[in-house]
Amino acid sequence: MRFDNAEFEASYGTFKQIPAATKPEIVFSGRSNVGKSSLLNKILNRKALAKVSASPGKTVTVNFFSIGNVRLVDLPGYGYAKVSRSEKERWAKMIESYFNSNRDIRLVVQLIDMRHKPTQDDIVMLEFLTQMEIPYIIALTKSDKLNKTQYKQQQSLLQEELAGFAPIDIIPFSAKSGEGSDKIKSAIEKSLK
User: Fold this and answer.
1) What is the mean pLDDT of each run of 10 residues along the chain (193 residues)?
2) Sheet with strand 7-12: strands edge to edge
3) What's the 3-state SS for the chain?
4) pTM of the full predicted structure?
5) What are the structural domains, with CATH classification, of the chain?
6) pLDDT at site 134
7) Residue 112: Cβ-neighbour burial (10 angstroms; 0-12, 13-18, 19+)
8) How far apart are the two ends of the chain, measured CA to CA in Å?
9) What is the per-residue pLDDT for 96?
10) Of 150, 95, 145, 85, which Cα lies nearest the Cα of 124?
11) What is the pLDDT at residue 82?
C-alpha cells in the first residue's frame, strides 16, 4: 500500500452529508488535540494533508482521505471542554451515526495521549469499540514528550489502565521522531487482507 499516494477527498459537517461507503475504511479517533492530524500526516509522509492546529477542537468535520481502494477517516476530536453543549451533541450524534451505519470499517486507530491516563471519554470509546466488535489498535501519541523514565512509567501505567480492553496492539507513537509509524502502517495493511 502506497501511503504517500493519499489524497484529500471531502469533509462533512453532518452525518446526512456523508455518502454511503464504497471502500474499506480505516478510522482515526481520539480526544481533541491528541494528535490525529499529526499522526495522519506522519504515516502518509505529508506535511499538511490533514490540517494541524495548536488549539483543540479545530477538526469539527469528518474528513475523508483516499489511498487507492481504501479510505482513511479522520473523526472530529471528542471531549473538548470549551465547545458549546449543542456542538458536543452534534459531534457525538455524527460519530455514533457514522459507526452505526453499516460501513466497511476494517480498523480504528484509537489515539490516547501517552503522557496522561485515558480520559473518561477515551474509556467510553474503547468500551463502544469493544461492544461493537470493531477491531482497533491504540496509538499512544506524544511519546517524544517524555524522558526515558517517564516513558517506561507511562507505558507500564497505561498497559495496566487498558488491561480490560483487547486492542490488537498498543503502539507508542511520535509525530516528531516517527516512532510507531511503521507498526501503525503494518496494522492498517494487515486489516485490509
Assistant:
1) 90 86 94 89 80 52 91 85 68 81 94 94 92 94 96 94 88 95 96 94
2) 7-12, 62-67, 70-74, 25-30, 105-113, 136-141, 170-172
3) CCHHHCEEEEEECCHHHCCCCCCCEEEEEEECCCCHHHHHHHHCCCCCCCCCCCCCCCCCCEEEEEECCEEEEECCCECCCCCCHHHHHHHHHHHHHHHCCCCCEEEEEEEEECCCCCCHHHHHHHHHHHHCCCCEEEEEECHHHCCHHHHHHHHHHHHHHCCCCCCCCEEECCCCCCCCHHHHHHHHHHHCC
4) 0.90
5) 3-191 (3.40.50.300)
6) 93
7) buried
8) 11
9) 82
10) 95
11) 62
Q: Grid coordinates standing for 185?
A: 502502517
pLDDT of residue 56: 46
pLDDT of 14 reads 79
Which residue do the cell numbers 503494518 mark?
186
